[in-house]
Amino acid sequence: MPKRDRELSLADKKIALFLDFQFEDMEAMYPKLRLEEEGATVHVIGAHPSGTKYTGKYGYPLKSDKSADEVSADDYAALVVPGGFAPDYFRRSAKMCAITSAMLAQGKPIAAICHGPWMLCSARREDGTPAIKGHRATSFIAVKDDVLNAGAEWVDEAVVVSERSEPTREVVITSRTPNDLTPWVHAIMDALVG
């Protein structure tokens, strides 16, 4: 793995991080802390009211900064979707699906790990197709069939960066498990700086 350029700065970037109960603790906390360490502002966004305390699978608590009803895709440069059971809640929220779809349409990076690609199976493009359709992607093995059935090419790799340019630019970054967090977060940072 190449050494990170210490000149990297995400100081002008605002990033949305979706959260709900039973999130995978490391998949939320590691990207939040690393992106903030590089200067980004990371807002934790849930379907419940602002300030809701969500508890991860292993008991780590994290409060939301905003409710999905209070934000727009226009507010953020990227979206981070951690795994655990939480994505099963995200995908039931029409507002969270709408934010995901809008960010995809705006060409903003969407990064999903573990069960997070479920969100890209449920969020839809304007033409009604799943957001992940036509992308190369990976995920936790348990959601492989969902990703395939949504029209993606599933591969078993630590991190997959998939860009499409037709009909609009789309950037999807996926990973499998917490073991892949470092290259996944590096891919997010690389996408944010160009």
Write the layout of secondary structure elements.
Elements: E1 14-18, H1 25-37, E2 41-46, E3 53-55, E4 61-63, E5 66-67, E6 78-81, H2 86-90, H3 94-105, E7 110-113, H4 117-122, E8 136-137, H5 144-149, E9 153-154, E10 159-164, E11 170-175, H6 181-193
Parallel strand pairs: 1-2, 1-6, 2-5, 6-7, 7-11, 8-9
Antiparallel strand pairs: 3-4, 10-11
Task: Describe what this molecule looks like in 3D.
With 194 residues, the protein is an alpha/beta fold. It has one domain: Rossmann fold, CATH 3.40.50.880. Helices cover 28% and strands 22% of the residues. The chain contains 6 helices and 11 strands. It has helices spanning 25-37, 86-90, 94-105, 117-122, 144-149, 181-193, and strands spanning 14-18, 41-46, 53-55, 61-63, 66-67, 78-81, 110-113, 136-137, 153-154, 159-164, 170-175. The strands form 3 sheets. A 7-stranded mixed beta sheet has the order 5-2-1-6-7-11-10, with helices on both faces. A two-stranded antiparallel sheet has the order 3-4. Helix 5 (144-149) links the parallel strand 8 and strand 9 (153-154). The protein is globular and about 35 Å long.
Structural class from helices and strands?
A: alpha/beta
CATH architecture name: 3-Layer(aba) Sandwich
N- to C-terminal distance: 19 Å
Strands of the biggest beta sheet: in what spatial order? 5-2-1-6-7-11-10
CATH superfamily: Class I glutamine amidotransferase (GATase) domain
Shape: globular
Strand content: 15-25%
Unreliable stretches, pLDDT < 50, 5 or more residues? none
Subunit arrangement of the protein: single chain
Largest sheet: 7 strands, mixed
CATH topology: Rossmann fold
Task: Tell me, rounded to a whole number, the average pLDDT.
Answer: 95
Helical residue percent band: 25-40%
Radius of gyration: 15 Å
Number of domains: 1
Task: Output the helix-strand order.
Answer: EHEEEEEHHEHEHEEEH
User: Which CATH class applies here?
Assistant: Alpha Beta
The count of DSSP E runs of length 2 or more, i.e. the number of strands, is: 11
Compute the number of helices.
6
